[in-house]
């Protein structure tokens, strides 16, 4: 696909192993709001967290906890817990991710890493992996206007990299919200990977043009013919 010049990649679940870190950090946020682990209310909230993987975390907490003060505190508790898990070593690149990014960039394509986390959490992950320079650009929702499932992250990546057309854009992620972002941005390639939150059926239902086993398969798709 020689017409693809910009590849927008999700982080957790796509290029970075999640291994339940989001759910573990959410437990800290729920605890801080007095939601008892294992209770029906907790299970309802956890189901929403799973369904909306990829969305800006503060948006998720606004939905779950209502008042802005509660949402902001939940977000702070979530970030503190997630940072602690990262600092303890529970953060790793998915197999083949760094190599795939390097191959795409070596071919002349630009790569942008996006996330539903805050900039502080995104930087914590990048630092833990030694990925400060792995991509041409990194973006979080606050730097784009709105997070997923809106097209803002992908379109901001396009504008910031000087890409000429949305037809030159590929959007790749592990969640239905990543797929919706790709579709709404007009990307030619909207690729789902099966290493994260959502299954093939969800990815296809939300608009995936391709479903890959992992990010390691992406260069073969984009560099073919």
UniProtKB/TrEMBL annotation:
Pfam families linked: Hydrolase
Source organism, top-level taxon: Bacteria
Gene Ontology CC terms, in alphabetical order: cytosol
Keywords: Hydrolase
Keyword Hydrolase: yes
SUPFAM superfamilies (UniProt xref): HAD-like
GO biological processes: DNA repair
Coiled-coil features, chain-numbered ranges: none
Molecular-function GO terms, alphabetical: phosphoglycolate phosphatase activity
Gene3D superfamilies registered for this protein in UniProt: HAD superfamily/HAD-like (3.40.50.1000)
InterPro entries assigned to the protein according to its UniProt record, in alphabetical order: HAD-like_hydrolase_sf, HAD-like_sf, HAD_sf, PhnX-like
Record bears the keyword Hydrolase: yes
NCBIfam families for this protein: PhnX-like (TIGR03351)
Protein name according to UniProt: Phosphonatase-like hydrolase
